[in-house]
Amino acid sequence: MHAPPMFFMHACWHKFLIMSIAYVTGSTGKAPPKDYSLSDDGANRLFGAFNGISIIATTYASGIIPEIQATIAPPVTGKMFKGLCICYTVIIITYFSVGISGYWAFGNGAQGSILSNFMAGDKPLLPSWFLLMINVFTLTQLAAVNLVYLQPTNEVLEGFFADPERDQFSVRNIVPRLIFRSLTVVIGTTIAAMLPFFGDIMALFGAFGYMPLDFILPMIFYNVSFKPSKKGFIFWINTTIAVVSSALAAVGAVSSVRQMVLDAKTYHLFTNI
Q1: Which of 62, 122, 145, 150 has the most CB atoms around it within 10 Å of its CB?
Q2: How much is the pTM?
Q3: Residue 48 clears pLDDT 70, i.e. is over it
């Protein structure tokens, strides 16, 4: 896998900014009163824990990208392992640093959307230019993510509207590509703005999609394809991971839907959060 240093530096710098301002905000007393206590409702604690596991599964699903890239050209095994090591190293350094610093700065009242934590009502806790800079970094990251995750949709659309007999950079093919790729981004952005359940949707995707792709299907496929001995360690560790992950995915799916139902009581379409 080829990991461009620019993207690595961008991710680290973005997360470093968030972590730093969370620390500064929490230290200066501008943040709302911090409360680190757990909910008294046992059901909320239990479902909240499984909801969090599903969100973490979505976070770690970034490893799907190097796995796919590694299969493009041989040798597969070495590149996949290196790619996953780099991927998970970046995730641990950046995501966990932001999560820990954010919880320290805002307590259990921390919002699912990071930038929402730096607003006290309509008043920002940080200079406007600083918030603008962070939004630019966020937009840059989302643009790169869109290119990756919308590619299958783009390929399907281009199969319908592109002319394979013309050059891919001809006007005949570029115009439909520009139109339909722009439409997919506009539609996705509109749906995201309509449904302000960012954390809940992350949990739903993790339970229904990323957890099976990352922790269930690979173990099953390995056992079916390579047929390791049923008396060996590899077979049983793969089976255990698949069974435990299936249970977590099932409960996580219920937890995420439950949380969306609860949040729907306070949210409405195009809520500004």
Answers
A1: 62
A2: 0.68
A3: yes
